[in-house]
Amino acid sequence: MSGTLRESEAQPESVRAVSLSPVVRSSCPICGVPLRGRQRACSGKCRAALSRQRRGDDLALVEESLTRALTRVRALRGASKDCA
Ligand SMILES: [Zn+2]
Fold first, then answer.
1. How far apart are CA 18 and CA 9, in angstroms?
2. pLDDT value of residue 62
3. Ligand 1 centre and the CA of 41: distance in Å?
C-alpha cells in the first residue's frame, strides 16, 4: 500500500529536476539552426532525419561486426576444407 504513495512522491521530484536543468544552447545537428529549450532538432523534418541518421549509425556498427564475424567464419572454413 505504501508503494503507491512513494510513486506519487517521486513523480514531482523528477519533474522539478527536469525544469531546473539549465537551458543547453545547442544547434540542430542536421542544418545547424540554433535550438531552444530541450529541442533535439529545429523541425520535425530534421528530427526525422536525425533519427534516421542514428539508425544508420547503429546499422553500420552491426554491419561492421557482422562483416568481421563473416570474415572469421570464412577463414575458419578455408582452414578446414574437409568439412565443406
Ligand atoms: Zn534543422
1. 16
2. 93
3. 5
What would the pLDDT profile of 7-34 be if each residue is shown by its tens digit? 555 555 555 555 555 555 789 999 999 9
For cell 513523480, what's the residue?
11
Which pLDDT score, from 0 to 100, does residue 10 have?
A: 52
Rounded Cα gap, residues 38 and 26, in angstroms:
9
Ligand 1 centroid – CA 82 distance (Å):
57
Distance 34 CA to ligand 1 centre (A): 8
What's the gap in Å between 58 CA and the centre of ligand 1?
21
Rounded Cα distance, 51 and 45, in Å: 10
49 C-alpha to ligand 1 centroid (Å): 9
Q: Residue 80: what residue type?
A: S
